[in-house]
Amino acid sequence: MSNNQNEKNTVLVQGTILAAASLLVRLIGLIYRVPMTRIIGEAGIGYYSTAYQVYNVILLLSSYSMPQAVSKLMAMRLGRRQYRNANRYFLCSLLVSAISGFLFFCIMYFGADFIAGTMLNAELAAFSIRMLAPTVLVMAFLGVFRGFFQGFRTMVPTAISQILEQIINAIASVIGAYVLFNKGLQTDLVKGTTEYSAALGAMGGTIGTLAGAAAALAFILFLFAVSYSTLRAKMRREPARRVFKYDRVFSDILLMITPIVISTFIFHILNLIDNGIYGSYMTGMGVDEKQYMSVWGVYSGKYQLLINLPIALATALASSVIPELTRAVEQRDRGGISQKIDISIRFTTLITIPAMIGLAVLGSDLVALLFGSGPSAADAGEMLIYGALAVLFFACATISNGILHGLGKMFTTVRNALIALAVHLIVLVLSLWVMSWNINGVVFSYTVFGFVVSILNYFSIVEASNFRGSLVKTYLLPLAASVVMGMCVYIINFVLTRGLGIVIHHAAIVRLISVCISIAVGVVVYFVAAIVFRAADETDLLDMPMGARMIRIAKRMHLLHSDE
């Protein structure tokens, strides 16, 4: 196998490991969110989501960018076999994370009331915000250790720690939500309100986040203790050469972190801004806090939860492509750069476009299956129909951000995200105050943001690398195959739902059977259609995980000729 083929496989294998873990993490999150929603209700999920959005913003400011930054900086030095410098970047990153983690822990803990009440018009979300504060400090260290292993081009420690984190999170969140929700009911009974049970239940749900992060940190520290000796041995054997001074190391870290933080900050603050603007709009319309927080809970706890499942693939692939592209740039391998960009974008669209169509077609039934039928399920299903395009746009925006970071164009992502944010805010204000689209206006403007970022990033990649991808093969052919899949899935789901409804007089069982069979058929139809339409040929399949097995299946189905 050629070096280029090995390099391409490295990107996909490592990306797939992290993508599989990310998807599993999101699935676990989806599973435990179901009982938690039923325990604390839509209003509780609204408070939970509001606090989590604050946590995400604080987290990215303090440590979210550290895995990418550490992996990129270490990959640069390890590629040149500068092991002492790589170690110095790692140690200094730990110090930076400790300082920033403690600072933002204080801001989040002591400023919870101001953030929740004054900034977000959700006063009782302060309980959950304060509970999440210690997690910021834990995640600050966890991010650096994950970046350490990613710098060595292995995503396995990160993947396993993410899965462990989410399992512990799921268990502790459901238990915490149940216990504190019941305690809140007693408070409501004494005060004659109906709000404290939802707010305290949301607070109980955030307990799992801290427990999961602590478990993941303990696990990855164990792996680090075992593997760090390898790096120390390489440092001892390294020929005498100039070691960077600490001022340069800290300067490099800050220069690397700053643009990643700003661009990622804009992505994550998007929901926080939308939350505040939507809350102000609904308050001005005379709607009380619990009512509009229930609607926000449907948007953030159902719509965004489902669309983030396929987007997780792009996030994972972006994390794996950064150190790979960094090495290619350092080695001035133009062919390798183009190959990595092409395979990353095409692999992303091959997965997310059918996911987008599938969510639009099955969204209402998926929501009803997971969270129960009712008005909120219908609302979430409507959001998925109107906002399914966000899956493709945000996936492309995420992977293109990772590519630009790998190409060393970090500040370009900041510029593009700022432009998209300005467009988003204009569209959001018009959608709410002029068009009166309410929560669907939030969905529309959210989709617009992803579209603008992905378009601007694509042109920036072309400018930075002279990359020339195929619009037809990357987007149009997977879309055509996905449309065929979507029509088949819709028909099968419709027929099964009506037919089984006559025999089985239990709506939940009928929906479960119909959705599962429809998804299974959809996977097969898309696989066949993608090959027939040449969205993926034998060379593409070979580059993908389990590609050889897929090729054998395709040949048995006579989709590919045996002599190809």
Gist of the model:
With 564 residues, the chain is mainly α. It has 18 helices and no strands.
Mean pLDDT over the residues? 84
Low-confidence stretches: 5-9
Element-level helix/strand string: HHHHHHHHHHHHHHHHHH
Radius of gyration: 24 Å
What count of domains describes the coordinates?
Answer: 2
> Beta-sheet strand percentage?
under 5%
Overall outline? globular
Secondary-structure-based class equals mainly alpha
Largest sheet: none
How much helix is in the residues? over 70%
- Total count of strands: 0
Distance between the termini: 17 Å
Question: Given the structure, what is the number of helices?
Answer: 18
Short key terms for the protein model shown above:
about 0% strand, about 575 residues, mainly alpha
Describe it for me?
This protein is mainly α and 564 residues long. The chain folds into 2 domains: 3-469, no CATH class; 473-564, no CATH class. It contains 18 helices and no strands. It has helices at residues 3-64, 66-79, 83-110, 112-119, 126-151, 156-191, 196-237, 246-284, 289-330, 334-371, 375-387, 389-406, 410-434, 439-465, 471-503, 507-532, 538-543, 547-556. Helix 9 packs parallel to helix 11 (375-387), helix 9 (289-330) runs parallel beside helix 12 (389-406) and helix 10 packs parallel to helix 15. The longest helix has 62 residues, at 3-64. The protein is globular. The two termini are 17 Å apart. Mean pLDDT is 84; it is low at 5-9.
